[in-house]
Amino acid sequence: MGTRQIAGMRFLFRAFATVKGAYMGKYAIVANTVTAGGLGCVGDLIAQKSEQKSEKFAWDANRTRNMTLVCLLAGPLMHHWYRFLDRRYPGHSFKMISRKLGLDMLSGPFWYGWYIGGLSLLRGCNSAQFLEEMKDKVPIIITVDLALWPLFQGINFKFFAPQYRILVIKCNELVLDVIFSHIANNDYTFSTWIDAIQRHFSGKN
User: Fold this and answer.
1) Residue 85: which domain range?
2) Model-level pTM?
3) How many domains does the chain have?
4) Are 70 and 122 in contact (CB under 8 A)?
């Protein structure tokens, strides 16, 4: 192995140690919060890019700011929530994973309200508009959540240590953030969303 390869390996080991320390030390809540906000930002940018058919990207900075802020503020809550789950149900047994996963899924309505409510508030919606947003979009988010989240979280609880819980969750959520950002920032009801999916897979515009 040459000098450059050795130097590269040393750099990777130092980077891994730094990341590990950030998520295990006394500033873990800061690392988790920044991770939550950063991946929320990336998720919205991917969603915006995927929505645009033209080659020139027209960035909606306010939309990205709102998504980033909502995810950033959720970071500390997620940090404490998953610390509680891991301490209350330690280990990687099927029984422990099932309990954590069940409680995590039951917390879903809180997070639906957090994201849809937070984005509605930042967009200047009134209470009637907020309720309309919840009525139209929460059923869509529940459907997506039930389809993907148990799989993502089962892998997370089974194979990753507690200190990386929020990092892995946010990587999982990067997929969901793209979907949720698209849903939250476009006019959808459950029926129009199903119609849009059917048109997409049938090749119709």
Assistant:
1) 3-202
2) 0.74
3) 1
4) yes
